[in-house]
Amino acid sequence: MSRRGWATLVLHLGNLLPAAPVALVGASLVGALWGEQGGDGVLWKPGGAYLLETLRLLAPTGGALAWMAPWYLLLWVVTGVVPQGLALGLLGARADEAPWGRGWRAVPALVVVLGASLLGRVVALALCLLAARALGASLSRFSDPVRFWGLAPLVLIALGLLGVIQALQDLAAAAAVRREERGPGALLTALEVLHRRPWAALGPWAWRAALAWGLLGGAALVGELGGGALLRQGALLAACWLRVGWWCRALGLIDGAPDPRERPPTSER
Amino acid sequence: MNLSPLLARGLAAGLALALLLGSSRALAADPPAASASAPIQRRSPPFLAPLPSGAAPLPPALSSPPPPVHRTRLVVRLDPVAHTLQAQGQVTWTNRSQRPVHDTFWHLYLNAFQHPRTAFLRSRLGEGRGDQLPSTWGRIKLTRLAVRSPDEAPSRAVDLLPSLAPHSPDDPDDQTDLRAPLPAPCQPQQSLVFDLAFEASLPSLVERTGFLENFHMVGQWFPKLARLRDDGTWSHFPFLRLSEFDADFGDYDITIEAPPAYVVGATGVRAEERTENGVRATRFLQEGVHDFAWTAWDQFLERTETLDGVPVRALYPRGHEPAVRRQLDGLRVAIPCMRRRLGPYPYASLTLVQPPAGAGEAGGMEYPTLITTGGPWYGPPWLRTAEAVAVHEYGHQYFYGLLASDEHRHPFLDEGLNTLVEGLCLREGHGDGSLLAAPGLSLDFLEAGRWMGLGAGHDHAIAHGAASFPTAGHYGRLAYFRTATLLATLRGAFGEAPFDEALQRYAQAFRFRHPEPADLVAALGQVDPALAVALDDGLSRRGWIDFAVTAFQPGWTVIARRGSLRLPVTVRLRFVDGTTRDERWDGTSEWVRFDINEPAELQAVEVDPEQRILLDEDRSNNARSRERTRVGRATLERGLFWGGLLGRLLAP
Hints:
CATH superfamily of the largest domain in chain B: tricorn interacting facor f3 domain
Radius of gyration of chain B: 27 Å
Largest sheet of chain B: 8 strands, mixed
Distance between the termini of chain B: 48 Å
Low-confidence stretches of chain A: none
Mean pLDDT of chain B: 89
Largest sheet of chain A: none
CATH architecture of the largest domain in chain B: Sandwich
Order of helices and strands of chain A: HHHHHHHHH
Number of helices of chain B: 11
Low-confidence stretches of chain B: 8-55
Strand order of the largest sheet of chain B: 6-5-9-3-2-15-18-17
Helix content of chain A: over 70%
CATH topology of the largest domain in chain B: Immunoglobulin-like
Shape of chain A: globular
Structural class of chain B: alpha+beta
Number of helices of chain A: 9
Oligomer: heterodimer
Number of strands of chain B: 33
Strand content of chain B: 25-35%
Structural class of chain A: mainly alpha
Number of strands of chain A: 0
Helix content of chain B: 10-25%
């Protein structure tokens, strides 16, 4: 298997690993409830009698565990840098070096990049919400649908901002792995790449992200009608493949960017 | 009143979790070889004398309204800037009871919003609407209340204002329930004329009534006589937070004056409209109803349709066409469905009001021939809350409107029965997806309501007065959903067709009357005396039930009936050769044992395989099998997918 294939597998497993304990506990609880009635196929019977009963009976358990959900999600986010680092390490390692080492070494920088990215997202969303409030107030004399559609461009702007931040984060992660830069340096490199070649960076990210989310959304909906498991798991894998493809591109963009450490001093120009 | 938002919120939380989780041979004995035979002592329902062995007599059905108890004629002028009303007119009232009447009781319910110490505003209970104090107080003040004989001139009327006094012993500050002694007793069938005039200020919108900018929803707005029962006692009570209403049938002739730019909708048929001196007067007439409400707004759009012979006028804000279209779709299902189940809608108009954004307190409410809906202008097409609100409020034209039970003392009689019929009609129109129909997932309205109904069943009995529920949540879960779940259970256990016929007989016999719980128990008890016992137990004694397979071996199995309700149920036995056999157990004993003497051994057993016993507290113990699945594989796979999706969203 190619390095890209291995990287896809690492990313895919990295995504599934934190989900596995939750899914397994859920599946075991459902098995305990309906194991004597043919298993969890009954959950999806028309009318939802068993599904609603499951939710009703498990609601106290879910409520008792709810307090840990935010912490678990935080852990999920932070530990996500490990498969990211390993996958990028596989893609970015030179031919003469071990594929894992580079990725491991980049993990601290990736955590910094992730923190900056999350901060950027919070700021972007807060700005969009403030703008929505102001715009909503100015549209108050219009009917409800006009107000709604008047705010729609802001949703697109917010999605666009989140996309740019995600692309920037990936470029910085690529710099952290390929050039073994620390977090701030990787972020500066990513900004420089985005500044010099914005469309070359955002275009490949955007179409892959759109395709991946289209696949995932489609699998979520169509999967309920038939062939579900294959479709859903296939879509997850395909989304990882697309993401890894973008990372390959990001590594190329990083390679094409001037390395500040190799840049000659200004006085010698 | 409508609780769909409560149901929808609960459902939304549940669905979030749902996404994460992703035949027979001969028996040893038929009937079963051995069953518990502890003697069962049956109790009689407290609502009525012991049930007759045959059919209980029901009153003859009325095809048209009986002679009115009152004729109310008012002219009211709305000042839409000051949000005030000025009105005058007469109420011609007849003592239809068997006893002389010495005093009258008047409900001045707008006074519930005149200061924070009223009985209504002091009892903010949480978990429901009406919990906000109004930003503008509301009040009503009688400027004239005088009584005379119909043949006397108004100038000879006796002024009742000096003797008019609040009558809320526990709430000295409350002026919503007032007593006015009569100068002389009013004999049975004698009529009196009350001349009245009043001024009212509408509150900012709070629980059904008030204003929001130029939008006015005007309910409980006039001095209204309480209902005189047949025994000569008055059904009178202050306006309370959870309580709705109880009133006599009468004829209304109301003229509403408002600026010409205002579109007015009201109870009854628009009989006349004229504009003079910059004021448009619209006259509404309606016979055979027990309340009158109206709305006025200068932004209303209007759409009219005739649905199953009923002229429907929809008033709604600009942009809300999609929501109103879906509400009319709901009525398109509900009107014929309820005609078949409960009898024809007898009035010549139905007005549907969709309040504007921010006026949710005015929504989800029923008045005779006028209903208010609610919700946003948009909504996912797979969720039927917009339709459900319209169906529910239309159902109140029967349970509350035509079958005018006392909503204060017996809220389950209107809300519970209406929620059941709402669910049945939604099911009739939309099948298994009567609440939600998404790809691969359908949810039934009554099944979802069951969740709510089971939530408070051990806390409190259903059969309580509205004011005695501890919270609005208890009121909603018990009066609406547990009642509907109980009735749906009895329908499933004792047979859908006989239950539906009995309900139809009840609806027709008590049309234009004031049924009591005993009347419902007697009517439904005609299906089976055991149904009446179970209904009574479920309503007044927190009756509950849980069928469970408590023992299972290849040659025998034991089914237990936990709880106090005794209901017949189907037990499905599946054998190793693939055959199945359904056994009917009457559920009167505490347990039943099935012994299998044939060569084919039991493979599995399931109680209530068609989920007819909605009140069953725990369906997960309803089956046992020789094969057991330990892990739900589909749930595991779905969990991994949605977890992977979340990871894609969250992870760097």
